[in-house]
Structure formats: structure tokens, C-alpha cells
Amino acid sequence: MNPQNSINSSENLLQTDRVFEFYAKLEESLECSRQRVILHIQGERAFCLEHLPAFKQWGQPLIISNQTDFAQNIPFSKVETLLGTECDYLIYDLFSGFNIDVFCLCCGLVKAGGMLIMISPENMRDIDDPYGVWQTHRTFDSRFTGYVLEQLKTMGSVRQGSAEINMPDFSQLAVLATFKNHKTDEQTVMLEDMHAWFNQSAQPVFLLTAHRGRGKSTVLGFFAQEIQHETNIIVTAASRNQVTILLKQLNENACVQFLAPDELIRRNEPIDCLIIDEAAMLPLSMLDQLMCLGKKTVLATTTGGYEGTGQGFLLKFIAAMDKKLYMHRQLLAPVRWGLNDKLEEWMNRVLFFSSAEPIGVASNLTKEALAKDEVKILGISKQKLSSDIGLLKSVYGLLVSAHYRTRPSDLRQLMDDDNQRVILAIHDQQVIGVLLLNQEGGFDQELSQDISLGKRRPKGHLLSQMIAAQAGVKNFATYRGLRIQRVAVMEQYRLQGIGRQLIDEARELINANEYDYLGSSFALDHTLSHFWKEIDFKLVHVASGKGKSSGRQTVAVLFAGRPEIIEIIKVLQQKMKDYLTVWLLSYCNSMCWQDVQALIQMMNVRYTLSQQDEDEITAFATGYRGFELTQASLQKFILNQLHKDQPINLAEVDITLLIEKILLNRSSHQLSHANRYSGRKELLQQLRLIIKSLNE
Prior knowledge:
By secondary structure, this protein is an alpha/beta fold. It has 24 helices and 22 strands.
């Protein structure tokens, strides 16, 4: 803080002209430096609101608040609809609570030379912050909020009852991008690369990534405008709002059409060039289906810490793609604001947005082998974690680099939620593994009954409620357990048992603290399912709904800490065995065949075939019995074949057919390899040959 940028005034700031001189000087400094900053106005609400008219000369602000004393305001729940817009200044109402995810989105809306004005009480304990509530208690002394407010001292501040007003140091100018024909030099080069890919490359996918404010959507719009007369172009995204900037670049006669992802999948028609903006916001299973439609596909997504999805997009989707199939380019220079921007630098430093570089795309990390005794496993208190910023940054950075969706709100929970337990794996004084556990359950019989009926849904008890209300174990919420929220291991140390060591430490907590179970709920992913089976967790439930971000079926696994839980696991596994064939034909029908195979192997059950079943299967294989009449017997037969630890000796295309046709009963045109069969007769003939080979 530069001493010369402090302005002294009387206690009642509004009764002097000095505070307005301060605002005038602040506006002038922002205009000259093209910097963006945060101004923190702190005091009673009336005091804060009385300051806001001083900024009206700057134009109409965006007011982000859940309160009712503003004439025009946008509630926190609607802020995502503003993505792609920009403003000179924005007011964030901390009296509504500190939703850090919304706050980060707000920072991305302020353009060069603009300001985010944060109004807050002097003591955050004076507000009922709904975003600081985990389970049944509120965090009154938020470590996270205290940390952020302390870091705000490097920005501008006005405090009720204080004789000093602080202004940031504007000695460093923000360097703005220069434009030629409405494009920066970097955007021009990017468009040249995209045209070369489209016209000359055999690679079907162009991957465009950028941090927020880099002009990614503008580039997509220019590209679509320039090639629209050469090809059929479809633009899609999770919502039309996300492509507003893209569509603005098109002229009135553009032949570019926006269609929602589910409509494209329903139509199932080939597309010459498919542009998917903010691809990371779509479920991975939906992206898989969309990718099959485009002859050429542009995948674009925002990376960094704002949405918490771009990193996972690289981790899960692109990492699974053959690197020969896509060309990856990045936009680096900001367009909406300048290089050396104070607000972006503050966000990166305080919220650790640059603490973990994206992996999964052309990762060149060298694997490092470790002996078990070289890794130290230890639990750490929230107080210690919050006070050691270096350690906190390491833990959060690892979570960001290893998980599909890690948001800034996860950082707040990591610092504030005392129901959450943190276990670390340390090697050579470096955090190489993290396990997050959430304490759940322990309710009385009456509340547990209400939970099982769906009358009550206590916050933060996800697994406990799932087993009670969905799986149907009425008294399950009375048991105390630990739910595994996250388990993450640094990439170069994976597949060495470190994850197992972390889980083993959690098992020790079960015994030492008299918890009843250890469990987890997650989107079923065939690439990870073997981990849970190897550490002896039992699959006990398949939910009817899919994960919003993953698009995959949600499942629950348990490890018993008491004999009563062992009996519950047996009951739930028997229920799964009895109901599985119905589930596969109903809400599990859209699962990918690999996840179905993983589900069956995790269940590890075997069905008893009657003599009649065996006779029907033989009759089908030899061509004397129809498919529909035999399907029930064929289902049990195929489930027995797939549950084996040793894979059945069949080509992948044949395993796919067995699962998709016999277990999921998909129509001929829905099959993954539908073009291999000229009609129903050839399809049935192939099924008969496969069943005959397995039945011999």
C-alpha cells in the first residue's frame, strides 16, 4: 500500500468532500492505468448504501444481491446468465452472504478500467451467511472469509468510523490488446490455425482452451462466419446464453444454426462442422454422443478456477482421446482486460487459480516409484490447514488437478467445514495425496424415519440419505459414518497403492472413533471401478438419477465397521441382484456398455439357471427360438458371463452387442455398431453365433 494513496477524513465520511475526491481520483487512476480493482466498503448497511450514488456517473451498475432494498438487482442464482457480458462497475452485496463461486463469476464481468465494489458489514458474524453452512451448523467465524477480507487490504477500502481511506497502487499500467480488423494478433493466428485444420488436417477435432476473458467465443464466431458458405455448421452449448458472443460475430444472413445438444442427439444426423462452446459444461456421456455426429468438431472450453469444469474436461474427456485425433491450441492474452491486471493477479494469488497446471493434454510427467515406508499418512486439522497457506495451496492444487469439478466453494469448505476430515499423503515434504471425509448420520429414530420417507433432507448427509431414502433402509440414518468425498493422488505417483494407504487410514478412524461405516457415492466410471473393488468396498445401490456433470449413473459403495452394517450390505446386494435386470431395461438403459460391464463386475453375483433356462438358451443359439421369448434367460446367462474376473474370450464389438441388445434391449439403430448389420436377420444371426460359442 502506498502511503501517499491514503486520504484522511473525518469520522463521518459522507459529510466531507474528501471521500468524493477519493472516488474521483480512483476513477481517474483506473481510466489511466486501465487496471481493474476491488473497492471494499465496510460498515453498517445504511452507510454502505449511502456511498453507491457517488458512482452513478460511471453508468448503470450490475448489482448482485439477494436483498430487496435495491431497485434493480440480480440474485446470486441468476449470475451465470450474465456470462459473456461486461460492465464498467459491479456491486457485490456481501450482506447476502459470501458465495465465492458467484463472486468469481462477477470478477470476470468487469472490463478494463472497471471496478468491483464489495459492500459488507464490519463483522461478518452480523449476517446469516447461507453459504457458510455445512450440515446443521453455521460457520460463525469463517476462516475463509477472514482470509479473503485480509487479502482485500491490498485493494481499495473505505471503512465506517475510520479516518483513512486506502487506494491501490496504480504504478503498473495494464497493457491492453491491440486490434486490427476487430481481431488481436493472437486471434488472427488462431483463426489461421483453425482454417488449416479444417481444410488440410485429417484430425477430426480442434481443441481450443483459454482462461476467462481471452476472446475464445469471439474467435469461434469469426471462424463460423468465415467458413459458413463452405459447409454445414451447427453451434451448440449447454444453453443459448453461453454462445451469445459467438452469435454476435455472425451477420444477419449467416447460415449458422444453434441447436441444443439433446436435440442434436435426437436428430442423429451427420454434421459437416460442429462447434461446441463451453464443452466442459456438458456431461461427458453427452459429449461422446455429439462427437459421433461431427465430421469436424471444434471443442472449446474455459479453463481456470471460475467454473471448476474446464480442468476436469481436460482430465476426463480429452485425456481419454487419442492425441493423434485432435489439434490443441490455447489463447493466452486477455482481451476484455489487460496484461498485468491487478484483479486477475489478486484472484490467481488468493484463490490459487494457477496453483495446478492443467494436465491430461500431452502430459509429460515422469512416473516416480515409491516404497510404502517413503510415504507418510497423517490427518491434519482445519485450523492448521487454514493457517498454513503454502500447505493449503498444495492441497487445493492437487484437488484441482485430479478431479472433474473443483470450484472455489470447495476451497471455502476445505477451510471452514469442521465436519470434513482431511488426510494427507506426504513424500519428501510434498503433498502427493489427499483424502477428504465427511461425517454423516447419527440421527434419532424419528428423524431417520422422516429421511427414509423423503420428508426431511438434512444438508451434507448425501450417502446417509441415499441409502435410507433411495435404497430403502429405513433406519440407516441412525448410523454414524464417514463418506469419502474426494481421493486424489498426484499423477506421477498413481497406481502405487497410495490411494489404498489413504483409505486404510480412514478405516483406522472408523475403529478409533466408533463410526459404523465408511462409504462413498460417485458417478460410475469403468476406468475407476476396479479401485473400489480392490479395496473391498461393496456396491450396494445404483441410483435412478445421473450425475449432473458426469452424465453417468450414480452408485453407492460401503465398507462395514460393525456387524449390523454387514447385514445391511447383504440385504442391499440381494436387492440389487433381484432388481438388476429391471433396472437395466429402465433407468440404466442409457448407460454406456463399458459402465454396464463395470457395474456387473463390481456386483460379483451369479444367477442360477434352471433347466428350462438352459433349454431356451440352447434353442435360441441353434435358431429354434425367438429373441423376445428367450431374453429373460439370456439376460441371466450373459450376467453370469460378464461377472467373471477373467474377461470372456470375445471381440469388443461382440461384447458390446451382448450388453446393448440382450441386457439393455436397445433397438437396432441405437446400437454402437449398427452399421455392421444389414438388418434384423443378420443381427440375430450374430447373436446366435455368440451365444452358441459361450454355451459350448
